From TrEMBL:
Keywords: Isoprene biosynthesis, Lyase, Magnesium, Metal-binding, Transferase. InterPro entries: FPS1-like (IPR039702), Isoprenoid_synthase_dom_sf (IPR008949), Polyprenyl_synt (IPR000092), Polyprenyl_synt_CS (IPR033749). It comes from Pinus taeda. One of its GO terms (biological process) is farnesyl diphosphate biosynthetic process. This is Farnesyl diphosphate synthase. The keyword Transferase applies. It holds the Pfam family polyprenyl_synt. Belongs to the FPP/GGPP synthase family. The keyword Metal-binding applies. GO terms for molecular function: (2E,6E)-farnesyl diphosphate synthase activity; dimethylallyltranstransferase activity; lyase activity; metal ion binding. Its cofactor is Mg(2+). CDD domains: Trans_IPPS_HT. GO terms for cellular component: cytoplasm.
Length: 347
């Protein structure tokens, strides 16, 4: 397959999911009963392939420019897709458990896995299984590669960072529920970087770098740029949750009702006068639509939308400047492509 980036890899990527699922269901380390096989089959189809697949596709999208000008073999495309699916498996594992912790009802337009009548808290074990599938897939396909240990290290480290970010989010929200003043910008940034940016932005590119024979220790600046990009992405998410068009983003935002440590509320708390603070304290985290409207009114009075547009402008400028400081032009292409996909997005 040519490395010209024109070939759409999505159909091939989606097909490889079925191959990986079949391999998991035939793993000789576990003697499946028919019931267990059917359960895992259904659980995987319900939780793994249903998203936008952006993270998974980003591995092969990043690998192409790194092999600048070289032909990419079918085998390399396959392995890039396998690593992409490992990231999608990781995402599914996080989301299953997140939904239980948050008491969520829907995910990707359907009931959360644990909400299905026969599932309930069996979903906790399903999450653990998904995490273990990643190790099995990596062993099946990468055990003979010189970067196998680095891949295992990478997935272990990013999982640790994400789980630690989730802990920070849970305890901050728990404290914030009684004291909104706990929501401050350094706390917000730390939660976002660990909970979202590492696995969503750094992990796909790090996988591609390892496949290309690179040492990740030589690319700490690339990691920092991607984590900064992931932070910008989450701020966009927070903005769209409140001000985006539900028809476009595909969901109705509930950050205000859910007492989320959102970028918007942190900015509002920094800027509000005494009476605006009282209105925020009285209405934030309440499900009553009039309370939500009151919070949004405070946001509008404070010009939080304009604050976001200014943040978006300066973040983009800083990111472009950091990217252009990279000596490696292939890496510049990878990073600019990532940024291009998210800049001024509407969903």
């Amino acid at each position: 397959m040519a490395s010209n980036g024109i070939v759409d890899v999505r159909p091939k990527f989606e097909k490889i999911y079925s191959e990986l699922k079949a391999q998991i269901l035939a793993d000789p380390a576990f003697d499946y009963t028919e019931d267990a096989r059917q359960w895992v089959d259904k659980m995987l189809d319900y939780t793994v392939p249903g998203g936008k697949l952006n993270r998974g596709l980003s591995v092969i999208d990043s690998y192409r420019p790194l092999k600048a000008g070289e032909e990419i073999s079918e085998d390399e495309v396959f392995l890039g897709c396998v690593l992409g699916w490992c990231i999608e498996w990781l995402q599914a594992y996080f989301l299953i458990l997140d939904d239980i912790m948050d008491g969520s009802h829907t995910r990707r337009g359907q009931p959360c896995w644990f909400r299905l009548p026969k599932v309930g808290l069996i979903a906790v074990n399903d999450g653990i299984l998904l995490r273990n599938h990643i190790c099995r897939i990596l062993k099946m396909h990468f055990r003979t590669k010189p970067y196998y240990v680095d891949l295992l290290d990478l997935f272990n480290e990013v999982e640790f960072q994400t789980a630690s970010g989730q802990l920070l989010d849970l305890i901050t929200t728990h404290e914030g529920a009684t004291d909104l003043s706990k929501y401050k910008m350094p706390t917000y940034v730390r939660i976002v970087q660990y909970k979202t940016a590492y696995y969503s932005f750094y992990l796909p590119v790090a996988c591609a770098l390892l496949m290309a024979g690179e040492n990740l220790d030589n690319h700490v600046d690339v990691k920092n740029i991607l984590v900064q990009m992931g932070t910008y992405f989450q701020v966009q998410d927070d903005y769209l949750d409140c001000f985006g068009d539900p028809e476009v983003i595909g969901k109705i935002g509930t950050d205000i009702e859910d007492f989320k440590c959102s970028w918007l509320v942190v900015q509002a708390l920094e800027r509000a006068n005494e009476s605006q603070l009282q209105r925020l304290y009285a209405n934030y985290g309440k499900t009553d639509p009039s309370c939500v409207a009151e919070v949004k009114a405070v946001y509008r009075d404070l010009g939080i939308q304009d604050v976001f547009f200014e943040y978006e402008r300066t973040s983009y400028k800083e990111l472009i400047s950091s990217i252009e400081a990279q000596e490696n032009e292939s890496l510049q292409l990878v990073l600019k492509s990532f940024l291009g996909k998210i800049y001024k997005r509407q969903k």
